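Good morning C.,

I know you're traveling, so I'll keep this short. The sequence:
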Amino acid sequence: MDLIITVLGLLALMVGGISCQGVYAPPTVRIIHSGHACNVEEERHTERVYTIREGETLELTCLVTGHPRPQIRWTKTAGSVSDRFQDSSVFNDTLHIAKILRNQGGRYYCKAENGLGSPAIKSIRVDVYYLDNPVITVHQSIGEAKEQFYYERTVFLRCVANSNPPVRYSWHRGREVLTQGSDKGVEIYEPFFTQGETKILKLKNLRPQDYANYSCIASVRNVCGIPDRSVIFGLTNKTASPSIKLLVEDPIVVNPGQTVSLVCITTGGEPTPTLTWVSSNDSLPQRSVVKGGTLTLPAITSDEAGVYSCVASNNVGNPAKKSTTIVVRALKKGRFWITPDPYHNDDNIQIGREVKISCQVEATPPEELTFSWLKNGRSLRSSERMVITQTDPDISPGTTNLDIIDLKFTDFGTYTCVAALKGGGIPEISIDVNISSTTVPPSLTVPRGKSPLVAREGDTVELECLVSGKPKPIILWSRADKEAPMPDGSMQMESYDGVLRIVNVSREMTGSYRCQTSQYNGFNVKPREAVVELIVQYPPTVEPVHMEVRQGLGRPVVMTCRVLRAHPSRVLRFEWLLSNRLLHAGAFDPHKDETEYTIRSLNREGWGEYTCNVINEAGAGKCTFQVTGKAYPPEFYYDTYSPLWQNRPRVYGFKLQWTQMNPGAVDRIVAYRLGIRQVGLQRWWEQEIPVGDTIGKGELMTHNLTELIKPESYEVRLTPITRFGEGDSTIRIITYSAPINPHLREFHCSFEEEAICMFTQDKNDDFDWTRHSAATRDTKYTPNTGPSADRTGSKQGFYMYIETSRPRKEGDQARLVSPFFNIALKNSYGLTNPSAYCFGFFYHMYGKHIGTLNAFLKQKGQMTLEAPVWSLSGNQGDRWKQAKVSIHPTSSFQIVLEGIRGPGIEGDIAIDDITLEEGECRDPPPNISANALSTSSHIWLLCTTLVLTLLEGQR
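The tokens, ready to paste straight into the viewer:
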């Protein structure tokens, strides 16, 4: 009987259960890459440099440990967000930038924090490599030598290409390579101030042989596979810088709505110059049309006026530029003002005194502006008593004045100022000004009861100033108490009726507002002004606005509602409610800023939403407390070692682990409800996991999930249950994949995922390894080679193989490169002895034309491959076999698997289930067939048989 209990106990441990331990830990961080890296090197112990070609995909993954699960944040350049880095920080494990640009290079930081200890931060510098097409520019100098009768003509060919890393240049003349000293008439140099950014070819005192085709080749030495780029320039005796001519006037004066065409032609230049149009308005109008050297602006508007320039460039000498100005005729903003006799200290208009009427208009072009004056509709000419003048345009542009000397009763009437542009085509502007005994300067008052004006936050208010006088001027509103913008965002607002209307007034708008008469459209006298006080009342601002209180039955609960600010500041009363049922109310203590409600012993009826209303004259502020017995959510543990605890051909198991957040805050958790569903499906499968003892803070619980179908992913939901009922749930995704971690003591890859465990194809070999499954592979063409299933015998399982059909030829090589593995340090000072690892894999080499399969160890800094650590050639039969070899790296390393094509098409070589374990290989493997049962399967069958036998014996 004891034996039965022992065996059943062992089986129970294998199948599932819950166990506990403390696991809270601060975060740790490591950055790995899985994008299109050209190279990853370590500059220092704590920094890595990631090199990538422009246009490729950058993918950096932040591997974190720590519990609770740390929050991850990616930032660039020491925490600031710049250079279009997603326009914000990225809160995700993986930073993914497709088609990376050169300005997106820089230092990227991964920050992880979970509230325990200090945040963990790691960085990696990303260098983006690129090479633009080079550009050749040509300059020449002609100097006359003193006392001699010849001209020296020297030509400089300058080659420039933007690149990272720095570019190397080489010059060719025709097919001849030019180097410094190879030709006495040629000098090649780099200007000191350019720091290697350019290469200049100097042709001294041009000779006939110097007229040729010159090639500049820019190279970054094939880093990141970036090819060399070149440009050719043909130098002839006709090579010349560009010259152009504009077939238009300057300036061009047009009316709005007209179509304007600007024509630019080249008058010289070899090679033929390229013509472009630019505008002083930063860019050409959206509706503009450029065809050759002609720029057409249809239906032009005033906004499109400005300077337009034609630029010709052929990379010889300096670009040629010709400009013209387009002026769009316009009249706008007509204004007037009346100035009383300046020699009398009186703002009123009186008989026998002087009065001046001024009229101002904005005109384009200003020199076309003309004014005329009318009195009561009849033309008015300048005379001794009616003096018409035009102000100096430099002092007050677009202004005319009518001075009435010795005002008489017969001068009363309506005076009209008419502004027009010469040539017509633009509507005139007419301004009427009435001069009479009722024309009086303005006065400004605030109506009784309108200041101070008291309003409640959110109301619509009208601040009012009464303006009298004739004519009535425009009223300008601004803040009187401080330099602050008005509600519309401007510093000053105009009002024609003296009313300032503010919609949805806020507490920040409390203060003094100044109303002031404008000098425009009224009297040119000292402005009249008045001040209106606005007081905005608002209900008490309280905290907390909303708070969740979790508590177990029989325990006390204290809720406090605090007043932060209010206007009026005197709070009148408070009231506490539970679901709209009044619990307690009273007058607010003027010496306190808070009110408190206590539940001595929480019972089931005490769960619910509590509301505290704090009330003043403007309304009520509300604190809300949700009192509940709901348990906090569980915290999934993501640092489980080897969570894939079962590895059968078609199903797998997963060790699910978690801790409980604040387990003592509520009643004891009696069970968990576990829900699981396959990703993409709707149906949940649920079960309850009972909990026997009280859960402690930081205790790790484990439940083994079984019979999960490969390679499906699953959504797992975990919900705690107390006497209150269900608590908050937590959801995570479980994904079946080989463990990917270059630091793990055990690495396993079965190529079931498209990422192929971060293996990469060597870019310097002849062809690539192919990921395939027997279910999708076409074997009609070469039926006598390659596997019929993966290593486990599954036709749905994946493996890697080399396809040796045409166009492959004998000797072609395909190399598959593992990610970097960091060796384990034995002590803080380095290695006592080289670390040992056991590298194993399954291979399938079937076919009469099988070539060779090699395995290499490539250590950090090693440029070429040394002798293979394992090698096999020839037909090994139609079955999977296992290979194991001990390796002893002294630094970070990679494994390289090389397949070499044999003499014919029946030579497919396949590999599967690659493993890397710390320590020496114990037993060299025998040749294992794919159909053989695994050790774990034998153990399972043995245990099952033993239990059944014992149970049968008990009967």
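Safe travels,
E.
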